[in-house]
Write a structure and sequence with these properties.
By secondary structure, the chain is an alpha+beta fold. The protein is about 20% helix and about 30% strand. It has helices at about 25-35, 60-65, 140-150, 170-175, 220-225; strands spanning about 5-15, 40-45, 70, 85-90, 95-100, 110-115, 125-130, 155-160, 200-205, 210-215, 230-235. α3 runs parallel beside α4.
């Protein structure tokens, strides 16, 4: 019998922890993350854009509230990400390596990647991203991420983030889905009245989804202009 190992992942554009009421409330975002209860989370707009580019959620709050810890992508003392992209993992996850991905861009955009070993023994690669808003460089950025993945160690892989792609198919969606099938979630933007699937999750074939969706709690509908998306995956090891 093939042994399966479950993993839950999520992606969330937290809008610098500023909610629809225009209040900066990082504690509210942490409550939403605890509601989702994922093993790995990719955040977008996690750092402030100017100055020291400090985290929108003060790093000490992760230790004080909830079970997540940020993956140390950037050496800056007050930041948890790279161009606003950050990865969170459940405590007890071993971070084998992590780094920023420099993408072709006209805007301050990027991606972050990490190789992780979960407490259940599963090793996998995770990439979090926030792609070009204008669309001019979006496909180039997708191909740069896929090139990075192709050069690396063959591992179960999750690619997720805010793609800023309004179309239901084609473009960068087709680039990612060629070797990493898209997980079917739902509309996540705008949180008040979702009309677009800007946030996406793609996985390698050995991580098929068994459940997925958009987290629509009352708090999530106020905490950011995006709703979080999530997927529960089954790892199917090579026979």
């Amino acid at each position: 019998m093939t042994r399966r190992r479950m993993i839950k992942v999520a992606s969330y554009n937290i809008h610098k922890a500023v909610g629809l009421d225009r209040r900066h409330d990082p504690g509210r975002v942490l409550v939403v993350l605890n509601e989702i209860d994922a093993d790995i989370v990719a955040l977008q707009e996690a750092d402030r854009r100017f100055g020291t580019k400090a985290s929108a959620i003060p790093p000490h709050m992760f230790a004080d509230h909830g079970h997540y810890e940020p993956v140390a992508i950037d050496a800056r003392p007050h930041s948890i990400g790279w161009h606003g992209n950050a990865l969170l993992v459940r405590r007890g996850t071993h971070i084998e390596e992590c780094h920023a991905l420099h993408l072709p861009t006209l805007e301050p955009r990027g991606a972050v990647a990490a190789t992780l070993r979960l407490p259940n023994g599963l090793r996998l690669r995770v990439v979090g991203m926030h792609l070009d808003l204008s669309g001019v460089r979006r496909r180039q950025q997708a191909r740069a991420i896929l090139h990075h993945v192709a050069l690396g160690e063959p591992l179960p892989t999750v690619l997720m983030g805010d793609l800023n792609e309004w179309r239901p198919r084609g473009g960068c969606l087709a680039d990612f889905a060629e070797h990493h099938p898209a997980v079917e979630t739902d509309h996540s933007f705008h949180s008040r009245r979702p009309v677009a699937r800007l946030d996406r999750i793609f996985t390698s074939p050995d991580l098929p989804p068994v459940d997925a969706g958009v987290h629509r709690s009352a708090l999530a509908m106020r905490a950011s202009d995006h709703l979080p998306i999530w997927a529960t995956l089954n790892h199917l090891p090579n026979k």
